[in-house]
Amino acid sequence: MNEHLLDIRNLKTWYRTYQGYAQVVDGVNLTIDAGKKIGIVGESGCGKTTTMKSVLRVLDERKAYLPEGEILFKNQNILKMRETELQQIRRKNISMISQEPSAALNPVFTVGQQIFDVISYSKQDDTAKNKKELTDIAIKAIRDVFIPDPERILECYPHQLSGGMKQRICIAMALVTPRELLIADEPGTALDVTIQDQIHRLLRALVDEKQTALIMITHSLGVVRELVDQIYVMYAGNIVEVATTNELFKNPLHPYTRGLMDCVPRLSGGGISAGIYGYVPDYVHPTPGCRFSPRCPYVKEICRVQKPLMLEVSEGHTVACFRYTDSFTEQHRQEESIGERA
Ligand SMILES: Nc1ncnc2c1ncn2[C@@H]1O[C@H](COP(=O)(O)OP(=O)(O)O)[C@@H](O)[C@H]1O
Ligand SMILES: [Mg+2]
User: Fold this and answer.
1) N or C: which terminus of the chain carries fewer CB neighbours within 10 A?
2) From the CA of 45, how far away is ligand 1's center (Å)?
3) Buried/exposed 143-175: b ≥16 CB within 10 Å, e otherwise
4) Reported pTM
5) Which ligand is nearest to the CA of 282?
6) Residues at CB less than 6 angstroms from ligand 1
7) pLDDT tens across 20-51, in order?
8) CATH numeric code, 6-104+183-341
9) Where are the domains of the chain?
10) Which parts of the chain register pLDDT below 50?
């Protein structure tokens, strides 16, 4: 019996492109339990959104292909579900906040109409609500995200709201009906940093209050540090390191995680970080072996030919890197001793 709320096993997602299949998600494993908070962190373009859109099956499946893997939500494989079952999941169990609030809101309907639709959609087979009940629920949802004068906001169209307000409305819509899992895809990235920080705090307070599990997606380790209990580091469609937030910050192992760590601004100063040299690779012709090898300062021959498996280095801390395998340490030691003799 599987006790995880969501259990992603060896998920692969490919896009059909004119150049061939782009193998964007490459064997992702991830679990989250009820009420927990995890972060998925990686540079832009490393496949975070694609992974989560696969979970909700909202990719256009004529263009996206999911050749392998299982996505178990409460033991039910989402990849095997029929459309009606999928709708049920989207209606009652999982909601997602998208990266771009303007794109998520429909410009031709008022905010009120859009919130009412979400409530009615989730209640479709329960008792339908009358206008008064819908309005009361919507007003409470808008108050929860600290927008003043909710009665007026219900009558507004999205273009009459600021970016921060739109993002709050998206959060209100995602949480207006009870959900077990909320996927927040870089909420607030399109906003300035002070508003972004408020949005993150608000999100955290709301998921705590409603005991919703949270998957927070971001490109910045600094952002998730205060928000989640466990972090998955993703690079080019692979999960390369998993640890609790404290452990990851204390003891980052993967060279990519360390590179990301260097990008977190420090209060003590130190100037602009060097960042990580190079780019996320081409997914149509992915690098054989470790996908990070072309950018890795510690690369060895084996890294270019063989894919490193996830290795548990201490309890709850796993990393996919040959540096932490015995054979690599042995090879490295031999090379060093040859170097010393020369
Ligand atoms: N519909 C699509 N068709 C082809 N390639 C896509 C599509 N959507 C995303 N990609 C590619 O997949 C890769 C990962 O994108 P994405 O999942 O959006 O990454 P992230 O969310 O980490 O920034 C990128 O190289 C992107 O160009
Ligand atoms: Mg994204």
Assistant:
1) N
2) 6
3) ebbebeebeebbeeebeebeebbbbbbbbbbbb
4) 0.90
5) 1
6) 15, 17, 22, 24, 42, 44-50, 63, 283
7) 999 999 999 999 999 999 999 999 999 999 99
8) 3.40.50.300
9) 6-104+183-341
10) none
